[in-house]
Amino acid sequence: MSKTVKVGMVGTGFVGDLHHASFKGWVHNAEVVAVSSPHNAAKFAEERGIPNHYSDYREMLKDKEIDVVDIGIPNDLHCQVVVDAARAGKHVIIEKPLCVTLEEADEMIEECKKAGVLLMYAEELLFAPKYVRAKMLIDEGAIGEPFLANNP
Questions:
Q1: Domain extents for the chain?
Q2: Residue 9: which of 81, 109, 115 has the closest Cα?
Q3: pLDDT digits (tens, 9 = 90+) for 67-93
Q4: Contacts with 69 (C-beta within 8 Å, 6 or more apart), sequence order
Q5: Other CB atoms within 10 A of residue 82 CB
Q6: Of 29, 38, 90, 104, which sees the most CB atoms within 10 A?
Q7: Which residues pair with 94 in a beta bridge?
Q8: b vs e for 13-34, b when ≥16 Cβ sit within 10 Å of the residue's Cβ?
Q9: Confidence label for 58 from pLDDT (cuts 50, 70 and 90)
Q10: What is the pLDDT of residues 93-151, one digit of tens each?
């Protein structure tokens, strides 16, 4: 039996809503246990049955129950939240783009390495059912050896 991964979400906007729905509907060994937002964390949590809410993500990072932090906030805020999450010992799922500068990317990667936590760059289409099925067909040899793929 696999462990249920406890998720803390940072952000309650459009991306946060999509990520929550994804965890609830498709990731069967994950449970969103907390959400943080300076704006409407309490309402977001209540509407979705999330037991804990915080107005400051740094308070949420102190929650020992949380294994992974899912970040769905404006791009220019990604770096600091990732660094703080890594230093708190939390694995990180980050929405695209990773950050806004190469220096920030280097810092985020370095902090996660130092802390021994995983940093997952979540490209939303990577696990879309049609792409998962296409990869499965390729892996099974159903269409032969791919020679060229083009996305116009």
A1: 5-125
A2: 81
A3: 999 999 999 999 999 999 999 999 999
A4: 7, 8, 9, 10, 57, 60, 61, 81, 85, 90, 91, 92, 93
A5: 27
A6: 90
A7: 71, 121
A8: eebbbebbeebeeeeeebbbbb
A9: very high
A10: 998 888 999 999 999 999 999 999 999 988 766 667 888 888 899 999 998 888 887 77
pLDDT at 126: 66
% of residues, the chain, pLDDT over 70: 95
- The topology (CATH level 3) of 5-125 is Rossmann fold (3.40.50)
Cβ contact 151:126 at 8 Å: no
* Identity of the amino acid at 7: V
How distant, in Å, are the alpha carbons of 16, 124, 139, 148 from that of 72? 5, 12, 32, 33
Sheet holding 30-36, edge to edge: 52-54, 30-36, 5-10, 68-71, 91-95, 119-122
